[in-house]
TrEMBL record:
The keyword Membrane applies. Keywords: Cytoplasm, Membrane, Signal transduction inhibitor. Coiled coil: none annotated. Residues 64-180 form the RGS domain. This is Regulator of G-protein signaling 5. The lineage of its organism: Eukaryota, Metazoa, Chordata, Craniata, Vertebrata. It is found in: Cytoplasm; Membrane. One of its GO terms (cellular component) is membrane. SMART domains: RGS (SM00315).
Amino acid sequence: MCKGLAALPHSCLERAKEIKIKLGILLQKPDSAGDLVIPYNEKPEKPAKTQKPSLDEALQWRDSLDKLLQNNYGLASFKSFLKSEFSEENLEFWIACEDYKKIKSPAKMAEKAKQIYEEFIQTEAPKEVNIDHFTKDITMKNLVEPSLSSFDMAQKRIHSLMEKDSLPRFVRSEFYQELIK
């Protein structure tokens, strides 16, 4: 439980930051009545219709985030789990970086780099990821002349964070436990 501001654990600060961002979005004036609708799923989203992995393959995910991310079913399950915790921004950033690396056109690369920066990196971004100031500064410098490696340092930091934090929670979750029964 989070007690006292000075002694807030790292995850409590992150959760408080997420709540602040989400409240900020909710407090913005909607452009239309359709913007007032806030979707709510009673049941967690099921993974995309892909082939269910073998038990052996699913068990490998406990020790390897990369194996999980390379498997479509695993990726969809992990994403559903993170959405259920309102913490999918790290995975979304990682996926956006992977997509960015596939871009060939310099013009499209610059456009996508700006979009990723505004959505995930800049301070108070709608889906701001938790990276240190040094990594944020390096990433910003890399974006002066965008290249395929512009987000590499930030992506590695987020991958490490997911590996140390999100993956262990996923492995303990009902999402994963149902899969390995």
